[in-house]
What does this fold into?
Amino acid sequence: MVLSSFRLRIIDPMLPRMKYLIGCYWLIMATWVQAQTKPDYQVQGEAWWAHVQTLADDKMEGRNTGSEGYQRAAAYVAGEFERLGLKPAGTRGYFQPVKFRVRQIIETESSLELVKEGTRDRLSFANDANFILPADMAKHIKAPAVFVGHGLVIPELGVDDLAGLNLKGKIAVLISGGPKRIPGPLKAHFSHTKQQWQALRQAGAIGMAVIRNPKSADIPWERSTLARLQPAMSLADSKLDDAAGMEIAIRINPAKADKFFSGTDHTIAELLKLADEDRPLPKFPLAVSIQATASLKKTHVESMNLAAILEGSDANLRNEYVVLSAHLDHLGVGEAINGDRLYNGAMDNASGVASILEMARLLKSSSLAPKRSVLLLAVTGEEKGLQGSKYFAHYPTVPRQALVADINLDMFMPLHSLQRLRVFGLGESTLGDDIRTVCAGEGIVVEPDPEPDRNIFIRSDQYSFIRLGIPSLSFKFGYEPGSPEERLHKDWLKLRYHAPSDDLSQPVDKAAAAQFNHLLLLFTRQIAESPERPRWNSDSFFRRFAK
Ligand SMILES: [Zn+2]
It folds into this structure.
């Protein structure tokens, strides 16, 4: 580190030699102390970015689960783990192989129709509605449909959108989201496929059709519909299938949803207005039946999670692990947008993997290893529905009860300077207090999730750990409503999220990313050093999963 010219100028060369030397000594000491405590975010930002550059390079072909590009990215991460001297914690070195069942739609041989009194309306997969492709998707199906509001069943809050409805053998049509009075994490949990489908299946439904409220949808229909051609994947281990028994799953374009409501007294505009005004939604049988033929190409692939351990310094606590997780997979090569078919996934989520590598390097290079061990986990299949993390959480490579917390990094979005940190799961466990303490020390404002209807709490890998009772948090750069930063985030979601333009040419604040890594490093240290392991707050809904 170079002494700043400002400090040199304040030393008067006419001072007696002794005083000058003492002055120099203190100056050097002060600079040294500062160098120890204040990291150089510019330099660290470049080191972080170098990983992003490698992982989001065209050579990695978008790191789709099961692809050769993913394997190349995995080899790079394993190489970095080795270079850092981390202990392998997979089942095969750093690797934990994961097997997947794969389904891809052959649209020319498939159809989706609305049938009413002998008339048929054939829907366009691109414009009206398309299939989500659960593992048990039927080849042919014809069933009546029922609108079930938000389709939520939350016994402890007395919410039951299915009460009094006959769903036996029917398809449940619903609008995403739920009443504002339901706390965000709870709403997120009960909107998850596993919970929501469990309730619908119990009520006799054979499938579901989802209208995403445009107010909370990240991606406009025109872009999200392209994903219908992507291969759908589920774990080959069928007992980990959240959608078991689901014979049909459909996503409906909100702009075309009136086709489904034709012949009833309702319109999509009316229903969305009620939802947006936080008023109760009606429930009613649809006048149309849904008829579908799904011709699928079915295959298998193997992919892998990667796990490495940075061993703790305490003889007892080193047998407990703070997990730092990030998904390595992205969407691969898909439908072209503006002539580009390669979905590089720089922010989603080369950025998160780069951060856990940087955090490992910084932990390794500091003289003191924390007391607990840190488990670095790069998972596969996140974009296919949190599959790799679910597999790891069910088949952990260290004893499950030794996992004390999961800190998950997924698209933390360093688009501008770091002033505010948005924390998902903030009010649920003692981890919330820890992150508040760390942020206070660094002058960063902590904010809870202001948009619970986007379900971010369950949309990344931390959720696989939460479901097994392990306290977890995830993060994004925060911003104030109406600020220029908010504009940056909204534009990013609209233009780059799950698009080929999430690539290396986009503007990123690398120094802010390094500052974020530093913050998360302090947080990891705090958890790893604390005599007590993190625990769920007594009023947290998720506490029930802790055994
Ligand atoms: Zn993603």
